[in-house]
Design brief:
28% of the residues lie in helices and 26% in strands. It has 16 helices and 21 strands. Residues 394-469 and 477-493 have low confidence and may be disordered. It has helices at 11-19, 45-49, 58-64, 75-88, 117-130, 143-152, 163-167, 181-189, 195-199, 203-210, 212-221, 251-272, 304-316, 348-365, 425-433, 468-477; strands at residues 3-7, 28-34, 37-43, 69-72, 96-99, 103-107, 136-140, 239-248, 274-285, 289-301, 324-336, 371-375, 385-389, 496-498, 508-515, 518-520, 527-532, 535-549, 559-567, 571-578, 584-590. The chain folds into 3 domains: 3-221, no CATH class; 241-340 and 347-365, DNA polymerase, Y-family, little finger domain (Dna Ligase, domain 1), CATH 3.30.1490; 425-590, no CATH class.
């Protein structure tokens, strides 16, 4: 099995300068407690050039370099930061194991997918550079071989047996395997300087002199490491945080820190192939604790540019009474990220802008401010939906529920349209179940129907029933122009009856069905004229019926025959005849 070792020189100091750029080029040391004394653990290049050495006390280091920047070394934080980097490398490596705080091992079995080990190695270095770290990568066959070569050599790819490059590795590389000065000191006293020289000594002699440690160093010097890579267990909660160099009272330094946090967060999400659904942005206020801001996404996302724009929008309207000392972003909810593919010719910028607008509305007005209608399996159309969280539709994907089969319907007469359209098997079944099984032929002249002298129907915006105002509002809002109106013609005896029932539904459905004031023909029993907005309008064509029948055992049963009425000067109405009372009701309008 081939493994790779990613060595990050002075990783804790690299991370400190990345989070606080003002420390770049300055003498900086990281201190830890050793047997009750505060000693130097990591030294920057500037501090090392000034004479500071690892193991010095903090007081001695401060006396050596005036103005020395001292910070505490936190092993847990460094381990967490390394784990974050390892998660960001998961798209190119199946797993990783930490070697905190110096680097990590990677499973190199997928290197051939990137064009070979050399190309894969360059890609790893580039990904570490994007994260802001300088890295050396070595690929080998054993963990110790690759680790020692990564920390003490400049080799890129080792052969299966280590080779001469590994033989020239300094003897101090044995410290990577936990070999202390009690073994390295006597070996150096013998004049040994490299692992190649050590491998020439008999294993028995080393075992007799140093015991189990001697046998171990002899095996390691020969490239015989039987340990295996154990992938790290990823933490359940995905969160990132950073502390500011100085408490900020302006938005600019806070946004800089948030960008760094969001970039890491999105790298971890993409490594796990997840997308964030709900975030929590925490601001550490100096002397006032933590302030948390919820962030709800209109659609799951794992792109830092989008998340940063949404967080910036939330912070613009935020007022705090204390300076901000740190930020933290937590993924409260995530889901699998299947990826999205745009249609040919689509621009991703427009889709991203839609995401920003929708997420801003949800974050500002609440999660329930945006909703959509989700279909429910019920026979009654006005109750066959429920409110659901709004999710933008995928571009170019037609709805599976509302089939776009009614391509020929318009608000006016379509030129060249056939009088009878082909029907499917389902439509033929509906026709057989319809109340009127045969089409109605044209008659010479309809029987005149007198207009009621005193009728309380709608006049302008007035309504005769409790829900009739909905019908009038929709119809009045339709842009019915001359180009949508059918050409004037002499009245016909009966409306044109089409024996075809299309499966699409109207784009505008009324909240409740409204009684339709219609003049019913005595011969067909179907409306010949309807009265809308105080005007008697002719029905030019009728399509249907489509029978909807609910469960007879249900108290909410329904039995209706739905028709499409093409009304003069209005368009296409969705109308049904109720079997309970025999009246006609308007239920929707087709745009």
């Amino acid at each position: 099995m081939r493994v790779a070792y990613v060595h990050l020189p002075r990783f804790p100091l690299q991370r400190l300068v990345l989070e606080q750029p003002s420390f770049a080029g300055k003498p900086v040391v990281l201190l830890e407690d050793v047997k009750g004394a505060e000693r130097v653990r990591f030294v920057s290049r500037a501090a090392s050039a000034a004479g500071v050495r690892i193991g010095q006390t903090g007081a001695a280091a401060s006396a050596t370099v005036p103005g020395l920047v001292k910070r505490r070394y936190d092993a847990d934080e460094e381990r967490k930061a390394l784990c974050t980097l390892g998660e960001s490398l998961l798209p190119v490596a199946p797993g990783f194991e930490l070697d905190a705080p110096h680097g990590l091992w990677l499973d190199a079995s997928a290197a051939h997918l990137s064009g070979g080990e050399a190309s894969w190695r360059e890609e790893l270095i580039a990904r570490c550079g994007v994260a802001g770290f300088r890295a050396k990568v070595v690929i080998g066959s054993e963990r110790f071989t690759t680790q020692a070569s990564g920390r003490f050599n400049e080799v890129g790819v080792l052969p299966a047996q280590g080779g001469a490059a590994f033989a020239s590795t300094p003897l101090d590389s044995l410290s990577c395997a936990g070999i202390g000065a009690d073994v390295l000191g006597p070996l150096k006293a013998l004049g040994l300087t490299t692992l190649g020289e050590l491998s020439g000594l008999p294993i028995g002699s080393l075992a007799a002199r140093f015991g189990s440690h001697g046998h171990l160093v002899a095996q390691l010097a020969r490239g015989q490491d039987d340990s295996h890579l154990t992938p790290e267990v990823l933490p359940e909660v995905i969160d990132e945080s950073v502390s500011l160099d100085w408490p900020a009272e302006q938005l600019e330094p806070v946004l800089f820190a948030i960008k760094m946090v969001v970039d890491r967060l999105c790298a971890r999400l993409q490594g796990r192939q997840l997308a964030a659904v709900r975030l929590s942005v925490g601001l550490t206020l100096e002397g006032a604790g933590l302030t948390s801001l919820p962030l709800i996404l209109a659609r799951p996302a794992a792109h830092s540019k989008l998340l940063l724009e949404l967080i910036r929008h939330r912070l613009t309207d935020l007022s705090v009474r204390h300076p901000i000392a740190g930020v933290r972003v937590i993924v409260e909810e995530a889901c699998a990220d299947p990826g999205r593919q745009l249609m040919l010719g689509d621009a991703p910028a427009g889709d991203a802008q839609l995401e920003v607008v929708l997420s801003k509305l949800q974050s500002a007005l609440g999660e329930a401010s945006l909703f959509s209608a989700e279909p429910v399996a019920r026979h009654r159309p006005e109750t066959a939906w429920k409110l659901a969280p709004f999710r933008p539709p995928d571009a170019g994907r037609p709805s599976e529920l509302w089939g776009a089969l009614d391509a020929g319907w318009t608000l006016g007469e379509k030129k060249g349209a056939p009088a009878v359209l082909p029907s499917s098997d389902r439509q033929q079944t509906n026709d057989q179940l319809a109340l009127l099984s045969a089409p109605v032929t044209e008659k010479p002249k309809p029987e005149p129907v007198a207009m009621p002298s005193a009728w309380d129907g709608p006049r302008g915006r007035a309504a005769a029933g409790p829900h009739e105002a909905d019908v009038m509002d929709v119809i009045a809002g339709l842009a019915v122009g001359e180009r949508w109106r059918a050409p004037k013609a002499k009245p016909v005896a009966e409306p044109l009856m089409l024996a075809v029932t299309l499966e699409s539904r109207p784009s505008r459905v009324f909240r409740e069905p409204t009684v339709l004031h219609a003049d019913v023909s005595s011969s067909s029993g179907l409306p010949a004229y309807v009265t809308l907005q105080g005007r008697r309008r002719r029905v030019e064509a009728i399509e249907g019926p489509e029978r909807l029948v609910g469960q007879w055992w249900s108290p909410d049963t329904v039995a209706r025959d739905y028709y499409r009425l093409r009304v003069e000067g209005v368009g296409v109405l969705w109308v049904f005849k109720d079997a309970a009372d025999g009246r006609f009701y308007a239920h929707g309008v087709f745009d």
